[in-house]
């Protein structure tokens, strides 16, 4: 019996995940194989930063399990949480802030997460030499960007209660809840929500009490349970 080889097991797992990923639909087995030599799995616990191994090489990230929180990173080292990536979503780690002080994103595990790190250069080289592969990748990226844009608009539009209702209901959708009759528990603290909406924790606490009184949500330690998603969406739409 052959001894267990963790590296070979990881490679086999990465191969199967890439072949099944919507964003890599249409990639031939040989194209997938070309990504494997530099591919690596990152296993992260809640709050751990998702970082690239080589500081000089941009990476493409594919979330395999769990969720990844994206925060807008600014030159003064401040950051604002803006989006949660769920399994199947694609992100990228860019170079550090450039001379023009452009902002980029920082990523951290929102719960226990497994993230696949791929060389951005190898992915882009393959896409550029085989243009039809862009179709599947573009489909996923456009869907993500639409969701991110809607989320950012929710953060900024209306009063705090409307923005809070919109944020919670959209995150429920990101977590994959399509059944309006089912409760969903989100790993979100009031501090998380306050940071996302750029308001005080006291404001969030007050608005959460109102939503709880309406029977829409239940606030727990480091979590929010959505009890009535249709009503929560209605509150967002009507406010």
Keywords:
8 helices; 239 residues; alpha+beta; Jelly Rolls; 2 domains; Arc Repressor Mutant, subunit A; 42% helix
How is the secondary structure organized here?
Layout: H1 6-20, H2 29-35, E1 40-44, E2 59-65, E3 68-73, E4 79-85, E5 90-93, E6 104-109, E7 113-119, H3 120-129, H4 134-156, H5 160-174, E8 184-186, H6 190-197, H7 201-213, E9 217-220, E10 223-226, H8 229-238
Antiparallel strand pairs: 1-7, 2-5, 2-7, 3-4, 3-6, 8-10, 9-10
In short:
This protein has eight helices and ten strands. By secondary structure, the chain is an alpha+beta fold.
Mean pLDDT across the residues is 82
What's the domain count? Answer: 2
Strand content: 15-25%
The number of E-state strands comes to 10
Order of strands across the main sheet: 1-7-2-5
- N- to C-terminal separation? 65 Å
- As a percent range, the share of helical residues equals 40-55%
What fold name stands as the CATH topology of the largest domain? Jelly Rolls
CATH superfamily of the largest domain: Jelly Rolls
CATH architecture of the largest domain: Sandwich
Number of helices: 8
Shape: elongated
Low-confidence stretches: none
Radius of gyration: 20 Å
Instruction: Provide the structure class.
Output: alpha+beta
Please identify the top-level CATH class of the largest domain. Answer: Mainly Beta
Q: What order do the SSEs take from the amino end to the carboxyl end, as H and E?
A: HHEEEEEEEHHHEHHEEH
Major beta-sheet overview: 4 strands, antiparallel
């Amino acid at each position: 019996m052959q001894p267990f080889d963790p590296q070979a097991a990881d490679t086999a797992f990465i191969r199967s995940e890439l072949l099944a990923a919507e964003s890599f639909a249409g990639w031939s087995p040989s194209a997938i194989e070309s990504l494997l030599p530099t591919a690596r799995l990152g296993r992260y616990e809640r709050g751990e930063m998702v970082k690239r191994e080589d500081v000089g090489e941009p990476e493409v990230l594919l979330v395999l399990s769990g969720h990844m929180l994206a925060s807008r990173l600014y030159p003064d080292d401040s950051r604002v949480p803006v989006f949660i990536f769920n399994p199947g979503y694609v992100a990228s780690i860019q170079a550090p802030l450039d001379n023009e002080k452009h902002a980029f994103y920082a990523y951290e595990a929102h719960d226990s997460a497994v993230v696949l790190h791929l060389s951005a250069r190898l992915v882009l080289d393959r896409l550029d030499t085989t243009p039809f592969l862009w179709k599947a990748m573009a489909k996923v990226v456009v869907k993500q960007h639409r969701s991110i844009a809607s989320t950012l608009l929710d953060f900024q539009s209306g009063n705090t209660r409307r923005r809070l209702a919109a944020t919670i209901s959209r995150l429920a959708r990101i977590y994959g809840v399509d059944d309006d009759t089912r409760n969903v528990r989100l790993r979100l603290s009031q501090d998380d929500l306050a940071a996302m909406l750029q308001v005080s924790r006291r404001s969030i606490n007050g608005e959460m009490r109102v939503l709880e009184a309406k029977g829409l949500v239940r606030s727990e330690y480091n979590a929010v349970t959505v009890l009535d998603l249709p009503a929560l969406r209605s509150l967002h739409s009507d406010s």
